[in-house]
Amino acid sequence: MSVSRMGSEDGAKRGCFPDDDDQRTRLLGPDKIPPSPSMQHCGDKPADKLLTLPTVLTLGRVAAVPLFISTFYVDSWWGTTATTSIFITAAITDWLDGYLARKMRLGSVFGAFLDPVADKLMVAATLVLLCTRPLEVDVFEQVPWLMTVPSIAIIGREITMSAVREWAASQNSKLLEAVAVNNLGKWKTAMQMTALTILLATRDSSLGGSDTLVASGVVLLYISAGLAIWSLIVYMGKIWKVLGR
């Protein structure tokens, strides 16, 4: 959504990535290397504090996923309204928890881990739901795979990037820096969230010009999928350069 950065790249907004000391600790053991200040504190707050305000907001997004799925299958105007409202609220709180983590210095290692999990759960659930229950528009009857292709591309990219970042974190800081969030990923997320909001909202058949809105949502989703694959290629290129040095 241009309304949000939900699905933002793996915890980058909280500024709590592991550093070289963290990698050496994994290799040498916790008794050999003193903990890094950046991992002891994330924005002047202890990294082991679990429930900060941003983290509570993130937990709320996770808890909202079952409710989101339930309202999706309610066959009435209020079901569509509730589903779309939950999605938009989740998007807003995603931006808000990142803002508060930076502004109030409440970031934490746990929050950095949980934030992308919450984002990916909501996005993946939305894509799967839209694939299993397509909009009642002629184009989806004529081309049944229209939603499936970008959905697989987006979900597949997120799974791949999560694995790549986990691997990079176990190697060294240069590799981790190579897969840090970039502007391409932010554009991908903005397109993706806007597309999903449109496609959720247009499930209400009372909306005027719904066919045009659905078409714009599908186009934006394909653009988002293209950006997702492109950003994955860019990340892999950066990793290749680091490994080749």
- The percentage of residues in β strands lies in under 5%
Query: What is the β-strand count?
Result: 0
Which regions are unreliable across 5 or more consecutive residues at pLDDT < 50?
Answer: 1-5, 7-47
> What string gives the helices and strands in order?
HHHHHHHHHH
Shape: globular
The proportion of residues forming helix, as a percent range, comes to 55-70%
Distinct helical segment count: 10
The end-to-end distance, rounded to whole angstroms, is 38 Å
Reported for the largest beta sheet, the result is: none
Q: Could you give a short description of this structure?
A:
This protein is mainly alpha-helical and 245 residues long. It is built from ten helices and no strands. Helices cover 69% and strands 0% of the residues.
Give an overview in words:
With 245 residues, the chain is mostly helical. It is built from 10 helices and no strands. α5 runs antiparallel to α7 and α7 packs parallel to α10. The longest helix is centred in the C-terminal third of the chain and has 34 residues. The chain is globular, with a radius of gyration of 19 Å. The two termini are 38 Å apart. The N terminus is likely disordered.
Q: Could you list some keywords that capture this structure?
A:
245 residues; mainly alpha; 0% strand; disordered N terminus
